[in-house]
Amino acid sequence: MAPLTVSFSLLGGTAISSVELDFDGNGTIDFTGQSLDGQTFTYTQPGLFVPTVTVIDTQGNRLATSAVVQVFDRTALDTMLQAKWTGMKEALRSGDITHALTNVVGPARARYEALFRVLAPRLPDIDTILTGLRLDEVSEDEAFYEMARIDSGIAKSFEIRFSIDEDGIWRLRSF
Known about the structure:
Elements: E1 4-6, E2 16-22, E3 31-33, E4 41-43, E5 47-49, E6 52-57, E7 62-66, E8 69-71, H1 74-93, H2 97-100, H3 109-118, E9 133-138, E10 142-151, E11 154-164, E12 170-174
Antiparallel strand pairs: 1-4, 2-3, 2-6, 5-8, 6-7, 9-10, 10-11, 11-12
């Protein structure tokens, strides 16, 4: 979320003479030095950025590589994560467990698949189990929500956690 402070690292065995970084992908070199180690850069505005690092080796050869950095604002992130929650519930309501699991982080899928299979007879009424969400807190790679519901007349609150999965996509981590 904006502002987002990042650092970049280079991996490889090339003998480096210097490094150039176009931090925001606008074609202007924002940093030149012998290493990116210890350097931090801050994206102050939300958006999709394609930073490019150019390494100049000791022979004068130039090798450039790019990455994608997506910086959200709180409202846009909340909208996207709410849509993932709703999409998962819609898939469960229709009995499509496989599709619902695409909204869950990879390492947790097997656990939630087993749970959804146990809940299979109740999935058409999933909205009584998994209710609406309210965004509480956002960190660099996690978003915490509160899900409130009434069970047998008792008000209960549950933490719902989204995080960035191994492939860089935001998904449900725990609920």
